Every structure is written in C-alpha cells, then in structure tokens.
Amino acid sequence: MVKQLSLLKAAGLSLVAMVLSVPPVFAETFTGRVSGVGDVDVELVEKGTPSFPRRAKSYGVSGFVTVKFDIDVEGSAVGAVIVESKPRRMFDRSAMRYMETLKFTPYEDNGDAVVVSDVVMNVTYKLSN
User: Fold this and answer.
1) Rounded distance, CA 34 to CA 32, Å?
2) What is the 3-state secondary structure (H, E, C) of 37-49?
3) DSSP letter at 101?
4) From CA 97, how far away is CA 56, in angstroms rounded?
5) Average pLDDT by stretches of 10, the chain with 129 residues
6) Please, is 102 exposed, middle or buried when counting C-beta atoms within 10 Å of its C-beta (0-12, 13-18, 19+)?
7) pTM for the full model?
8) How far is CA 103 from CA 14, 27, 98, 118, 119, in A?
9) Calculated CA dihedral for residues 36, 37, 39, 45, nearest 10 degrees
10) CA-CA distance, 76 to 73, in Å (whole number)?
C-alpha cells in the first residue's frame, strides 16, 4: 500500500509539474453574426497594446471605449464605430488605432471564409498604481 501511494504521489507530482510547465493559452473569443448562420464565436489571435493617452494620464483618468466592428475574410477588424466611451472622447482615438492591430481567426462557413458582423469589444484603460 505504501509503495502504491508513493507511485501515485510520484505520478501526481509529475503530472502537476507537466501541467505547470505548459504555458497557459487563454484565447479571447467574441460573438458576432454571420448572415444565414446567426451568432458565431470568433477567436482573437493577435493584438497590440492600446496606448494610454497622455492627457488622460496627466489627469489621472481611467475609462473604457466600447467598439462595434466587422471581421473580414482575412481576419482583420474593419468598419469600427464607437458605441460608447467614458469619459467621452478621452480614449476614442487610441481605441480606434488599437482596432487596427487586431487579428482574428477567419470564420469559415462550408469551407469558405465569410464576413462576421456586429462584433462588440470593450477596450479598457486603467491607470496602474
């Protein structure tokens, strides 16, 4: 019994070591619409870092921008429009530049890449302490 417990312990520790050594990959997914299909999930595979505007930093202001956009057949965000921003216009330009850095896995319907519309994303700006 002790020998079996030791083997289990050794195997368990090895498993934990293997799990901890694998880098975590948490893909971000967003929901959009495909004509004739309905709601679909799309995976964000590449993104830049939104720049924190100097004016917001000097005022000590945090905020967010909600953006609605489409994803073209190549996986790029296109046609972005601002739905909401708080505070108004403080982070809008930065969020729109950030949208240009996004790359999604193109959505395929019957083997063909199709446009995904009405994807909504929040871009958050938070001052670090």
Assistant:
1) 7
2) CEEEEEEEEECCC
3) T
4) 16
5) 47 37 62 95 96 95 97 97 97 98 96 97 91
6) buried
7) 0.76
8) 36, 12, 11, 16, 13
9) -110
10) 8
CA 77 to chain centre: 12
Two structure tokens written together for 14: 């090895």
3-state class of 85 per DSSP?
strand
% of the chain exceeding 90 in pLDDT: 76
Instruction: Give the pLDDT confidence of 54-79 residue by residue, as tens digits.
Output: 999 999 999 999 999 999 999 999 99
Domains along the chain with CATH numbers: 26-125 (3.30.2420.10)
Of 39, 54, 7, which is closest to residue 117 (Cα–Cα)? 39
